[in-house]
Amino acid sequence: MKKTKLLLSLSLLFGLSSTALFAAPLTSNKDIIGSWFLEYTKKSPEDAETKLMGMTWVLDNSQVTQKDIPQVRGNPYNAPAVDYVVEDGTLKISILGRAGKFDVYSLVEKTDTAMVLKDNKYGTYMYFTKK
């Protein structure tokens, strides 16, 4: 009986603390509509090393456009708009030229002025600020 109470207490404690660490899943396109400046990426939230990005994602009702993508040589460029959908709590962005293929991102944290997405394929964390 004591073990059961201990396990129940620990699971409740873990459950309550885990909700504080992760944002609620995305429920609709309206959760992320707008212009978001991708400042940098990290391999994990605890990682001190960041990779500067400096591009903007513009999300409207059904399409995302990546703007001001930096290049090693030359001027920044804009990528063509592609469709996106919020499904099963994740952001699924179509891959240009690959019908039926998507890049999938999970919402880690979101406020009115900031958002953190996790790339489900590579595990990279992406840090955005609202423009």
Question: Would you mind describing this structure in some detail?
Answer:
It is a single chain. This protein has one helix and eight strands; from the N terminus they run H-E-E-E-E-E-E-E-E. The chain has an eight-stranded antiparallel beta barrel. The protein is globular. The protein has 131 residues and is α+β, with helices and mostly antiparallel strands.
Span between termini = 55 Å
In DSSP terms (H or I, runs of 4 or more residues), the helix count works out at 1
Beta-strand percent range: 35-45%
Number of strands: 8
As residue ranges, the low-confidence spans are 1-21
Q: Provide the succession of SSEs.
A: HEEEEEEEE
Question: What is the general shape?
Answer: globular
Measured as a percent range, the helix fraction is 10-25%
What is the element layout, followed by pairings?
Blueprint: H1 2-21, E1 34-42, E2 51-59, E3 63-67, E4 82-87, E5 90-94, E6 102-110, E7 114-119, E8 125-130
Antiparallel strand pairs: 1-2, 1-8, 2-3, 3-4, 4-5, 5-6, 6-7, 7-8
Summary, kept brief:
The protein has 131 residues and is α+β, with helices and mostly antiparallel strands. Helices cover 15% and strands 42% of the residues. The protein has one helix and eight strands, in the order H-E-E-E-E-E-E-E-E.
